[in-house]
Sequence to fold (459 residues):
Amino acid sequence: MTVVKSPSGIDVYIARGQQMVADAEARRETMRNKKFATIAVHGLYGLQEALVNQGSINEPLYLSSAQHFENSDHMEAALAYQMPSWTYSRIANPTLHYLEETLALLEGYGFAGQASCCVTSSGMSAIFLATNPFVGTQGSQRLNIVVSSRCYGGTFMLFSERYEKERGIEVRWVTDPHDLAEWQGLIDEDTRFLFGEMPSNPGLSVFDIEQVARLAHQAGVPLIVDSTVATPALLRPLCLGADIVVHSVSKSMNTGGLAIAGAVISRHQIVSKVGSDELRENFALYLKLLPGRDFGPALSPFSALMVLKDLHTLRSKLDFLSQSCLQVAQFLAQHSGVTAVLYPGLPQDSGHKLAARQMQLVDSADKSGQPEQRYGHLLSFRVKGGAQHARQFFDRLQLIMRATDLGRIKSIATIPAISTHQQQGEAGRKLADIPADLVRLNVGGEDPLDIMQDLEQAL
Ligand SMILES: *Cc1c(COP(=O)(O)O)cnc(C)c1O
Fold:
Protein backbone atom coordinates (compact mmCIF):
# COMPACT_ATOMS: atom_id res chain seq x y z
CA MET A 1 0.00 0.00 0.00
CA THR A 2 1.42 3.36 -0.92
CA VAL A 3 1.02 6.18 1.51
CA VAL A 4 0.20 9.47 -0.15
CA LYS A 5 2.11 12.05 1.79
CA SER A 6 0.50 15.43 1.88
CA PRO A 7 2.95 18.08 0.73
CA SER A 8 4.90 19.79 3.41
CA GLY A 9 7.56 22.45 3.75
CA ILE A 10 8.66 24.14 0.57
CA ASP A 11 6.45 21.81 -1.53
CA VAL A 12 3.35 23.59 -0.25
CA TYR A 13 4.62 26.78 -1.80
CA ILE A 14 5.75 25.14 -5.01
CA ALA A 15 2.24 23.69 -5.40
CA ARG A 16 0.69 27.05 -4.62
CA GLY A 17 3.01 28.60 -7.20
CA GLN A 18 1.86 26.13 -9.85
CA GLN A 19 -1.73 27.09 -9.14
CA MET A 20 -0.87 30.79 -9.41
CA VAL A 21 0.84 30.21 -12.77
CA ALA A 22 -2.21 28.29 -14.05
CA ASP A 23 -4.61 31.01 -12.83
CA ALA A 24 -2.60 33.77 -14.50
CA GLU A 25 -2.47 31.79 -17.74
CA ALA A 26 -6.25 31.28 -17.66
CA ARG A 27 -6.75 34.98 -17.13
CA ARG A 28 -4.36 35.77 -20.01
CA GLU A 29 -6.29 33.38 -22.23
CA THR A 30 -9.55 35.16 -21.37
CA MET A 31 -8.02 38.55 -22.20
CA ARG A 32 -6.45 37.28 -25.45
CA ASN A 33 -9.98 36.84 -26.72
CA LYS A 34 -10.84 40.49 -26.07
CA LYS A 35 -10.31 43.39 -28.45
CA PHE A 36 -7.19 45.58 -28.31
CA ALA A 37 -8.90 48.57 -26.66
CA THR A 38 -10.38 46.32 -23.96
CA ILE A 39 -6.97 44.80 -23.21
CA ALA A 40 -5.43 48.28 -23.00
CA VAL A 41 -8.02 49.28 -20.41
CA HIS A 42 -7.98 46.13 -18.26
CA GLY A 43 -4.83 44.10 -18.88
CA LEU A 44 -4.80 41.31 -16.29
CA TYR A 45 -6.32 43.50 -13.59
CA GLY A 46 -9.84 42.12 -13.42
CA LEU A 47 -12.71 41.98 -10.95
CA GLN A 48 -11.08 39.31 -8.78
CA GLU A 49 -7.79 41.19 -8.65
CA ALA A 50 -9.65 44.33 -7.61
CA LEU A 51 -11.36 42.51 -4.75
CA VAL A 52 -8.08 41.35 -3.26
CA ASN A 53 -6.84 44.94 -3.53
CA GLN A 54 -9.49 46.51 -1.27
CA GLY A 55 -11.81 46.88 -4.27
CA SER A 56 -9.59 49.45 -5.93
CA ILE A 57 -10.65 49.89 -9.56
CA ASN A 58 -7.16 51.16 -10.35
CA GLU A 59 -4.13 48.91 -10.42
CA PRO A 60 -2.46 49.33 -7.02
CA LEU A 61 0.80 51.20 -6.62
CA TYR A 62 3.25 49.16 -4.55
CA LEU A 63 6.10 51.48 -3.70
CA SER A 64 7.46 48.99 -1.18
CA SER A 65 11.00 47.87 -1.88
CA ALA A 66 10.36 44.33 -0.69
CA GLN A 67 7.82 41.60 0.03
CA HIS A 68 7.21 40.02 3.45
CA PHE A 69 7.03 36.19 3.45
CA GLU A 70 4.83 33.84 5.48
CA ASN A 71 7.78 31.74 6.65
CA SER A 72 11.20 30.41 5.62
CA ASP A 73 9.70 27.85 3.18
CA HIS A 74 7.78 30.58 1.40
CA MET A 75 10.93 32.70 1.19
CA GLU A 76 13.05 29.83 -0.09
CA ALA A 77 10.55 28.87 -2.80
CA ALA A 78 10.26 32.50 -3.91
CA LEU A 79 13.99 33.16 -4.02
CA ALA A 80 14.58 29.94 -5.96
CA TYR A 81 12.04 31.25 -8.56
CA GLN A 82 9.93 28.17 -7.80
CA MET A 83 6.79 30.20 -7.33
CA PRO A 84 5.60 33.58 -8.65
CA SER A 85 6.47 36.25 -6.13
CA TRP A 86 8.00 39.65 -6.25
CA THR A 87 10.55 39.48 -3.45
CA TYR A 88 12.39 42.75 -4.10
CA SER A 89 11.47 45.58 -6.48
CA ARG A 90 14.74 45.39 -8.42
CA ILE A 91 13.60 41.99 -9.65
CA ALA A 92 9.81 42.26 -9.73
CA ASN A 93 6.94 44.30 -8.30
CA PRO A 94 3.13 43.97 -8.51
CA THR A 95 2.65 47.33 -10.24
CA LEU A 96 5.31 46.48 -12.83
CA HIS A 97 3.58 43.12 -13.28
CA TYR A 98 0.33 44.77 -14.39
CA LEU A 99 2.21 46.94 -16.88
CA GLU A 100 4.21 43.98 -18.22
CA GLU A 101 1.15 41.81 -18.69
CA THR A 102 -0.70 44.60 -20.51
CA LEU A 103 2.24 45.32 -22.83
CA ALA A 104 2.74 41.61 -23.60
CA LEU A 105 -0.95 41.26 -24.51
CA LEU A 106 -0.98 44.42 -26.65
CA GLU A 107 2.25 43.66 -28.50
CA GLY A 108 1.16 40.02 -28.91
CA TYR A 109 -2.32 41.00 -30.14
CA GLY A 110 -3.14 38.96 -33.24
CA PHE A 111 0.02 36.88 -32.87
CA ALA A 112 -0.58 33.13 -32.90
CA GLY A 113 2.08 32.31 -30.30
CA GLN A 114 2.79 33.66 -26.85
CA ALA A 115 4.63 36.82 -25.85
CA SER A 116 6.19 38.04 -22.60
CA CYS A 117 7.44 41.41 -21.44
CA CYS A 118 10.13 42.84 -19.20
CA VAL A 119 9.85 46.54 -18.39
CA THR A 120 12.96 48.59 -17.71
CA SER A 121 14.03 51.98 -16.43
CA SER A 122 14.31 53.55 -19.92
CA GLY A 123 14.17 52.78 -23.62
CA MET A 124 17.96 52.68 -23.71
CA SER A 125 18.15 50.12 -20.90
CA ALA A 126 15.58 48.03 -22.81
CA ILE A 127 17.77 48.15 -25.94
CA PHE A 128 20.88 47.35 -23.93
CA LEU A 129 19.22 44.41 -22.12
CA ALA A 130 17.69 43.08 -25.36
CA THR A 131 20.95 43.12 -27.31
CA ASN A 132 23.68 42.45 -24.75
CA PRO A 133 22.99 38.69 -24.28
CA PHE A 134 23.78 38.08 -27.96
CA VAL A 135 27.17 39.74 -28.04
CA GLY A 136 29.00 37.66 -25.45
CA THR A 137 32.34 36.46 -26.78
CA GLN A 138 31.74 32.73 -26.49
CA GLY A 139 32.47 31.04 -29.81
CA SER A 140 33.33 33.63 -32.40
CA GLN A 141 35.81 36.33 -31.47
CA ARG A 142 34.95 38.38 -34.55
CA LEU A 143 31.27 38.77 -34.01
CA ASN A 144 29.18 41.39 -35.76
CA ILE A 145 25.70 42.88 -35.61
CA VAL A 146 23.69 44.15 -38.59
CA VAL A 147 21.83 47.36 -37.81
CA SER A 148 19.78 49.85 -39.80
CA SER A 149 21.66 53.15 -39.66
CA ARG A 150 18.28 54.95 -39.61
CA CYS A 151 17.99 54.86 -35.87
CA TYR A 152 17.68 56.90 -32.71
CA GLY A 153 20.86 58.74 -31.66
CA GLY A 154 21.10 56.88 -28.34
CA THR A 155 20.92 53.53 -30.13
CA PHE A 156 23.57 54.68 -32.59
CA MET A 157 25.85 55.60 -29.67
CA LEU A 158 25.22 52.35 -27.75
CA PHE A 159 26.21 50.27 -30.77
CA SER A 160 29.04 52.43 -32.12
CA GLU A 161 30.66 53.62 -28.86
CA ARG A 162 29.89 50.96 -26.26
CA TYR A 163 29.76 47.87 -28.44
CA GLU A 164 32.12 48.67 -31.31
CA LYS A 165 34.73 50.99 -29.78
CA GLU A 166 34.82 49.56 -26.27
CA ARG A 167 34.17 45.88 -26.97
CA GLY A 168 35.35 45.37 -30.53
CA ILE A 169 31.99 44.18 -31.82
CA GLU A 170 31.72 45.04 -35.50
CA VAL A 171 28.64 47.11 -36.33
CA ARG A 172 27.57 46.63 -39.93
CA TRP A 173 25.29 49.51 -40.83
CA VAL A 174 22.51 49.03 -43.35
CA THR A 175 22.32 52.43 -45.04
CA ASP A 176 19.17 51.74 -47.06
CA PRO A 177 16.85 49.54 -44.98
CA HIS A 178 14.50 49.18 -48.00
CA ASP A 179 17.23 47.24 -49.77
CA LEU A 180 16.97 43.56 -48.80
CA ALA A 181 20.13 42.76 -50.75
CA GLU A 182 22.07 45.17 -48.53
CA TRP A 183 20.82 43.43 -45.36
CA GLN A 184 21.59 40.04 -46.84
CA GLY A 185 25.07 41.04 -48.03
CA LEU A 186 26.09 42.09 -44.50
CA ILE A 187 25.00 38.89 -42.74
CA ASP A 188 27.52 36.08 -42.22
CA GLU A 189 28.15 33.25 -39.75
CA ASP A 190 29.52 35.66 -37.13
CA THR A 191 26.36 37.81 -37.13
CA ARG A 192 24.51 37.72 -33.81
CA PHE A 193 21.35 39.75 -34.47
CA LEU A 194 19.60 42.11 -36.89
CA PHE A 195 18.18 45.37 -35.58
CA GLY A 196 15.92 47.99 -37.15
CA GLU A 197 13.59 50.81 -36.20
CA MET A 198 10.13 50.84 -37.69
CA PRO A 199 9.48 53.61 -38.45
CA SER A 200 12.74 55.32 -37.62
CA ASN A 201 13.37 58.40 -35.52
CA PRO A 202 13.78 61.02 -36.95
CA GLY A 203 13.81 60.02 -40.64
CA LEU A 204 10.56 57.99 -40.52
CA SER A 205 12.12 55.42 -42.79
CA VAL A 206 10.60 51.96 -42.91
CA PHE A 207 11.69 48.43 -43.73
CA ASP A 208 10.00 45.15 -44.56
CA ILE A 209 9.87 43.33 -41.21
CA GLU A 210 8.62 40.09 -42.74
CA GLN A 211 11.44 39.87 -45.29
CA VAL A 212 14.18 40.98 -42.91
CA ALA A 213 12.94 38.44 -40.30
CA ARG A 214 13.19 35.76 -42.99
CA LEU A 215 16.83 36.74 -43.64
CA ALA A 216 17.58 36.72 -39.91
CA HIS A 217 16.05 33.29 -39.41
CA GLN A 218 17.91 31.84 -42.40
CA ALA A 219 21.07 32.92 -40.58
CA GLY A 220 19.82 31.52 -37.25
CA VAL A 221 19.71 34.90 -35.51
CA PRO A 222 16.91 37.04 -34.06
CA LEU A 223 15.40 40.17 -35.57
CA ILE A 224 14.99 42.91 -32.97
CA VAL A 225 12.63 45.77 -33.87
CA ASP A 226 12.31 49.13 -32.12
CA SER A 227 8.73 50.22 -32.82
CA THR A 228 8.57 53.07 -30.31
CA VAL A 229 7.21 55.51 -32.89
CA ALA A 230 4.41 53.18 -34.08
CA THR A 231 3.24 51.58 -30.81
CA PRO A 232 1.26 48.30 -30.93
CA ALA A 233 -1.88 50.29 -31.82
CA LEU A 234 -0.43 50.69 -35.35
CA LEU A 235 2.20 47.99 -35.78
CA ARG A 236 2.95 44.66 -34.10
CA PRO A 237 6.29 43.32 -35.34
CA LEU A 238 5.85 39.91 -33.64
CA CYS A 239 2.92 39.23 -36.01
CA LEU A 240 5.26 39.93 -38.94
CA GLY A 241 7.98 37.53 -37.77
CA ALA A 242 10.21 39.62 -35.48
CA ASP A 243 11.58 37.81 -32.42
CA ILE A 244 11.97 40.73 -30.04
CA VAL A 245 10.36 44.18 -29.86
CA VAL A 246 11.89 47.03 -27.86
CA HIS A 247 10.18 50.24 -26.87
CA SER A 248 10.97 53.52 -25.34
CA VAL A 249 7.84 53.57 -23.22
CA SER A 250 8.78 57.17 -22.42
CA LYS A 251 7.31 58.19 -25.80
CA SER A 252 4.00 57.59 -27.60
CA MET A 253 2.77 54.92 -25.20
CA ASN A 254 3.05 57.54 -22.50
CA THR A 255 1.74 60.74 -24.12
CA GLY A 256 1.48 62.50 -20.75
CA GLY A 257 5.25 62.39 -20.49
CA LEU A 258 5.46 61.84 -16.73
CA ALA A 259 7.89 58.92 -16.80
CA ILE A 260 10.97 57.49 -18.48
CA ALA A 261 10.46 53.79 -19.15
CA GLY A 262 11.32 50.98 -21.53
CA ALA A 263 10.10 47.52 -22.46
CA VAL A 264 11.34 44.35 -24.12
CA ILE A 265 8.59 42.13 -25.50
CA SER A 266 9.56 38.82 -27.04
CA ARG A 267 7.79 35.85 -28.48
CA HIS A 268 8.47 32.50 -26.90
CA GLN A 269 11.11 30.31 -28.63
CA ILE A 270 13.16 33.03 -30.29
CA VAL A 271 15.79 32.16 -32.88
CA SER A 272 19.39 32.52 -31.65
CA LYS A 273 22.72 30.78 -32.19
CA VAL A 274 23.98 31.72 -28.75
CA GLY A 275 22.62 31.63 -25.22
CA SER A 276 20.98 29.11 -22.94
CA ASP A 277 17.72 27.23 -23.48
CA GLU A 278 16.11 29.60 -20.97
CA LEU A 279 17.14 32.56 -23.13
CA ARG A 280 15.51 31.07 -26.22
CA GLU A 281 12.42 29.75 -24.51
CA ASN A 282 11.16 32.95 -22.90
CA PHE A 283 13.61 35.75 -23.59
CA ALA A 284 11.73 38.51 -21.74
CA LEU A 285 11.35 36.38 -18.62
CA TYR A 286 15.03 35.41 -18.83
CA LEU A 287 15.96 39.11 -18.96
CA LYS A 288 13.72 39.87 -16.01
CA LEU A 289 14.93 37.08 -13.73
CA LEU A 290 18.62 36.92 -14.65
CA PRO A 291 20.39 39.79 -16.50
CA GLY A 292 17.77 42.27 -15.20
CA ARG A 293 18.47 41.10 -11.65
CA ASP A 294 22.24 41.41 -12.15
CA PHE A 295 22.45 44.68 -14.11
CA GLY A 296 19.59 46.25 -12.15
CA PRO A 297 17.80 48.60 -14.62
CA ALA A 298 14.50 48.31 -12.72
CA LEU A 299 11.60 50.63 -13.46
CA SER A 300 10.11 52.62 -10.61
CA PRO A 301 6.61 51.37 -9.71
CA PHE A 302 5.42 54.97 -9.65
CA SER A 303 6.53 55.42 -13.27
CA ALA A 304 4.88 52.12 -14.18
CA LEU A 305 1.55 53.39 -12.86
CA MET A 306 1.89 56.67 -14.80
CA VAL A 307 2.46 54.66 -17.98
CA LEU A 308 -0.41 52.25 -17.31
CA LYS A 309 -2.88 55.09 -16.90
CA ASP A 310 -1.78 56.59 -20.22
CA LEU A 311 -1.79 53.24 -21.99
CA HIS A 312 -5.50 52.68 -21.29
CA THR A 313 -6.41 55.10 -24.11
CA LEU A 314 -3.62 54.17 -26.55
CA ARG A 315 -5.72 53.13 -29.53
CA SER A 316 -8.02 56.13 -29.72
CA LYS A 317 -5.13 58.55 -29.13
CA LEU A 318 -2.94 57.08 -31.85
CA ASP A 319 -5.94 57.21 -34.18
CA PHE A 320 -6.63 60.91 -33.78
CA LEU A 321 -2.99 61.97 -33.43
CA SER A 322 -2.15 60.12 -36.67
CA GLN A 323 -5.01 61.85 -38.48
CA SER A 324 -3.81 65.26 -37.29
CA CYS A 325 -0.25 64.40 -38.28
CA LEU A 326 -1.31 63.48 -41.82
CA GLN A 327 -3.11 66.82 -42.13
CA VAL A 328 -0.01 68.69 -40.95
CA ALA A 329 2.20 66.64 -43.31
CA GLN A 330 -0.03 67.55 -46.25
CA PHE A 331 0.11 71.21 -45.27
CA LEU A 332 3.92 71.16 -45.06
CA ALA A 333 4.25 69.22 -48.33
CA GLN A 334 2.61 72.05 -50.29
CA HIS A 335 4.40 74.86 -48.40
CA SER A 336 6.95 76.87 -50.40
CA GLY A 337 9.22 77.23 -47.35
CA VAL A 338 9.66 73.45 -47.06
CA THR A 339 11.84 71.37 -49.41
CA ALA A 340 10.91 67.87 -48.22
CA VAL A 341 8.50 66.16 -45.83
CA LEU A 342 9.34 62.74 -44.40
CA TYR A 343 6.14 60.97 -43.41
CA PRO A 344 5.19 57.47 -44.58
CA GLY A 345 1.52 58.48 -44.62
CA LEU A 346 2.09 60.72 -47.66
CA PRO A 347 1.50 58.82 -50.92
CA GLN A 348 4.62 60.44 -52.44
CA ASP A 349 6.87 59.23 -49.57
CA SER A 350 9.37 56.58 -50.70
CA GLY A 351 8.32 54.31 -47.81
CA HIS A 352 4.58 54.72 -48.31
CA LYS A 353 3.81 51.38 -49.96
CA LEU A 354 5.91 49.41 -47.48
CA ALA A 355 4.42 51.28 -44.52
CA ALA A 356 0.86 50.85 -45.83
CA ARG A 357 1.33 47.08 -45.86
CA GLN A 358 2.48 47.02 -42.24
CA MET A 359 0.84 49.91 -40.39
CA GLN A 360 -2.88 49.99 -39.69
CA LEU A 361 -5.05 51.09 -36.84
CA VAL A 362 -5.72 47.90 -34.91
CA ASP A 363 -9.34 46.63 -35.00
CA SER A 364 -10.46 49.21 -37.55
CA ALA A 365 -12.47 48.98 -40.76
CA ASP A 366 -13.41 51.62 -43.30
CA LYS A 367 -16.65 51.59 -45.33
CA SER A 368 -15.37 48.80 -47.57
CA GLY A 369 -14.20 46.73 -44.61
CA GLN A 370 -10.49 47.47 -45.11
CA PRO A 371 -8.39 48.42 -42.05
CA GLU A 372 -7.77 52.16 -41.65
CA GLN A 373 -4.22 53.21 -42.50
CA ARG A 374 -2.57 55.24 -39.75
CA TYR A 375 1.09 56.28 -39.67
CA GLY A 376 1.68 57.77 -36.24
CA HIS A 377 2.22 61.29 -34.99
CA LEU A 378 5.86 61.92 -35.84
CA LEU A 379 7.09 63.59 -39.03
CA SER A 380 10.22 65.40 -40.17
CA PHE A 381 10.75 68.10 -42.76
CA ARG A 382 13.53 70.18 -44.31
CA VAL A 383 13.37 73.93 -44.20
CA LYS A 384 14.21 75.83 -47.40
CA GLY A 385 17.39 77.88 -47.14
CA GLY A 386 19.50 75.46 -45.07
CA ALA A 387 20.45 75.05 -41.42
CA GLN A 388 20.34 78.75 -40.57
CA HIS A 389 16.79 79.08 -41.85
CA ALA A 390 15.77 75.97 -39.96
CA ARG A 391 17.03 77.55 -36.73
CA GLN A 392 15.23 80.83 -37.42
CA PHE A 393 12.00 78.95 -38.07
CA PHE A 394 12.54 76.96 -34.87
CA ASP A 395 13.15 80.06 -32.76
CA ARG A 396 9.92 81.67 -34.02
CA LEU A 397 7.61 78.86 -32.84
CA GLN A 398 5.01 80.14 -30.37
CA LEU A 399 2.75 77.18 -29.61
CA ILE A 400 4.92 74.20 -30.50
CA MET A 401 7.50 73.56 -27.80
CA ARG A 402 11.24 73.30 -28.43
CA ALA A 403 12.44 70.07 -26.78
CA THR A 404 14.25 66.83 -27.48
CA ASP A 405 11.15 64.81 -26.87
CA LEU A 406 8.46 63.00 -28.78
CA GLY A 407 5.31 61.03 -28.21
CA ARG A 408 3.66 63.83 -26.31
CA ILE A 409 0.09 65.07 -26.32
CA LYS A 410 1.76 68.50 -26.69
CA SER A 411 3.27 69.40 -30.05
CA ILE A 412 7.05 69.48 -29.85
CA ALA A 413 9.75 70.23 -32.40
CA THR A 414 13.48 69.64 -32.42
CA ILE A 415 16.42 69.99 -34.79
CA PRO A 416 18.00 66.51 -34.55
CA ALA A 417 21.44 67.62 -35.82
CA ILE A 418 21.91 69.92 -32.81
CA SER A 419 20.05 67.78 -30.26
CA THR A 420 19.15 64.07 -30.34
CA HIS A 421 21.72 63.27 -33.01
CA GLN A 422 24.40 65.83 -32.12
CA GLN A 423 26.83 63.54 -30.33
CA GLN A 424 27.21 61.07 -33.16
CA GLY A 425 29.03 63.74 -35.17
CA GLU A 426 28.98 64.80 -38.81
CA ALA A 427 30.02 61.40 -40.20
CA GLY A 428 27.50 59.57 -38.02
CA ARG A 429 24.74 61.93 -39.14
CA LYS A 430 25.69 61.40 -42.77
CA LEU A 431 25.44 57.64 -42.22
CA ALA A 432 22.05 58.04 -40.56
CA ASP A 433 20.94 60.57 -43.20
CA ILE A 434 20.22 63.49 -40.89
CA PRO A 435 20.80 66.82 -42.64
CA ALA A 436 21.34 70.01 -40.60
CA ASP A 437 18.12 71.62 -41.94
CA LEU A 438 15.91 68.75 -40.74
CA VAL A 439 13.19 69.56 -38.21
CA ARG A 440 11.42 66.75 -36.37
CA LEU A 441 7.86 67.49 -35.37
CA ASN A 442 5.77 65.55 -32.87
CA VAL A 443 2.17 66.39 -33.66
CA GLY A 444 0.21 66.63 -30.43
CA GLY A 445 -3.43 66.73 -29.46
CA GLU A 446 -4.04 70.42 -30.17
CA ASP A 447 -6.44 71.29 -32.99
CA PRO A 448 -4.42 70.75 -36.19
CA LEU A 449 -5.49 74.21 -37.44
CA ASP A 450 -3.66 75.83 -34.52
CA ILE A 451 -0.58 73.69 -35.13
CA MET A 452 -0.54 74.66 -38.81
CA GLN A 453 -1.04 78.32 -37.95
CA ASP A 454 2.04 78.25 -35.72
CA LEU A 455 4.07 76.52 -38.44
CA GLU A 456 2.84 79.04 -41.02
CA GLN A 457 3.83 82.10 -38.99
CA ALA A 458 7.25 80.59 -38.18
CA LEU A 459 7.98 79.58 -41.78
C1 LIG B 1 13.69 57.89 -27.22
C2 LIG B 1 13.95 56.67 -27.98
C3 LIG B 1 14.73 55.63 -27.43
C4 LIG B 1 15.35 55.75 -26.06
O1 LIG B 1 14.40 55.74 -25.07
P1 LIG B 1 14.57 56.44 -23.61
O2 LIG B 1 13.31 56.08 -22.93
O3 LIG B 1 14.74 57.91 -23.83
O4 LIG B 1 15.78 55.83 -23.00
C5 LIG B 1 14.90 54.50 -28.18
N1 LIG B 1 14.37 54.36 -29.41
C6 LIG B 1 13.63 55.34 -29.97
C7 LIG B 1 13.07 55.15 -31.35
C8 LIG B 1 13.40 56.52 -29.29
O5 LIG B 1 12.69 57.50 -29.86
Q: What stands out?
A: The chain has two domains: 90-311, 314-458. The chain has a mean pLDDT of 95. The domain at 314-458 is CATH 3.90.1150.10 (Aspartate Aminotransferase, domain 1). The CA atoms of residues 107 and 232 lie 5 Å apart.
